[in-house]
Amino acid sequence: MDIYWPYSSYVCVFVCPGKVRWQDFDQDLYVGATVVRPGQDPYARNKFNQVESDKLRMDRAVPDTRHDHCRHKQWKSDLPASSVVITFHNEARSALLRTVVSVLKKSPPHLVREIILVDDYSDNPEDGALLGKIEKVRVLRNDRREGLMRSRVRGADAATAPVLTFLDSHCECNDHWLEPLLERVAEDKTRVVSPIIDVINMDNFQYVGASADLKGGFDWNLVFKWDYMTLEQRRARQGNPIAPIKTPMIAGGLFVMDKEYFEQLGKYDMMMDVWGGENLEISFRVWQCGGSLEIIPCSRVGHVFRKQHPYTFPGGSGTVFASIQSRLEMKKRLGCKPFKWYLENVYPELRVPDHQDIAFGALQQGGNCLDTLGHFADGVVGVYECHNAGGNQEWALTKDKSVKHMDLCLTVVDRTSGSLIKLQGCRENDSRQKWEQIESNSKLRHVGSNLCLDSRSARMGGLTVEVCSPSLNQQWKFTLNLQS
Predict the structure, then answer these.
(1) Structural domains of the chain ordered from first start
(2) In this predicted model, what pLDDT tens digit does every residue of 104-145 receive, in sequence order?
(3) What residues does 370 pair with on adjacent strands?
(4) In which pathway does it act (predicted)?
(5) Taken in order 371, 375, 381, 383, is the CA torsion positive or negative?
(6) Measured at the alpha carbon of residue 309, what is the angle toward residues 306 and 310, in degrees to the nearest 5?
(7) What is the pTM of this model?
(8) What is the pLDDT of residues 310-367, one digit of tens each?
């Protein structure tokens, strides 16, 4: 008998007469009850194309995106079992079902003790309850909206295996995804490990894959981003391209860690509401409190990336803040290192804005960003697709009105409309290098010529200064503006 109980009690409200193998689960009946009707928007409910998702079989084949070396690697046989915790709120049934089935299909049976589905008060309780018929699946339902963090903690508290695996509710696991993660945690219980996350296209649900040269990071808006490994890090891996990747940050939705260590570190902050920020918070805490974070290249899991949140923030996202006093006390109790240590030892590539900066980060125009194009002194600048990895796209506007990339500044050599911008060494009182933000920080105007930074000639030679106009070629936005 499968028991399905609400958040505040253990009253049985759903009884399943028996378990079935996932192969025998009636996908058509389960998914068919919530299909998109003719004339309805397929993106409305989930912010991905539910029509395309619903067409797919629950056990569809996905390409094996692992490196060749992974396919010949033998994993240890005496690995600890894991409880897989999946939280969801109004998830598309087809996506949720594929997540569950992919775990069961792609994992050695003895390594998955249970799959714990935590239904965060979805509109239809049967979204989760019906999945409780499947072997190894347990379903917990909150009796009110609790949010991602408290829901995950509830699932973790209910877990019976020594290792926790957290997954989002719109994933598809690849071949032998679990063994390499469990092996690293078994070797060191203070390791938190994550797979390489392959992209599943939100429009057509094709399995796209992902670069294996990325690690997790963040910008100073405290938004997660993917960083390219440094040249030194890439060189160090040339002899072993499937070696674990030390990462300052994990994406947050997909990771594995020892259950006892999760509890020792304080689980999640139970004051955090709805969604967001938990990946940064747990990443900082792991590194600063004695653990480490790794991405394991031989583990690949697909994930549907959306451009919008499909759920609401009750009261508005601006109200989702809470006291952190208890977490500060915990940090002191655990003897955790300061954030300065993290920046210096874990993420030294992240440049900290200094007191001279007015704006900082990427300088964006639509999907493109101001880029050095690899040029140095006396070279031109252009635009390139934004990659959110700093490097050639990292700029600062300083209080002395310089637009700087390292020790190079945007320089107007000829103060006439149409003249090319050059990179030249920054000089303190050089009027050719003075810029200011105008029109609500949406444009950069050269002080000495009253001309604006313009991208109209980017493909033909580089950026220029032009007569200021409403043109989109002159719209620029810094990642972080430190003045209103």
Answers:
(1) 22-345 (3.90.550.10), 357-481 (2.80.10.50)
(2) 999 999 999 999 999 999 999 999 999 999 999 999 999 999
(3) 383
(4) Protein modification; protein glycosylation
(5) negative
(6) 95
(7) 0.79
(8) 655 555 555 555 778 888 888 899 999 999 999 999 998 887 777 778 898 899 999 9
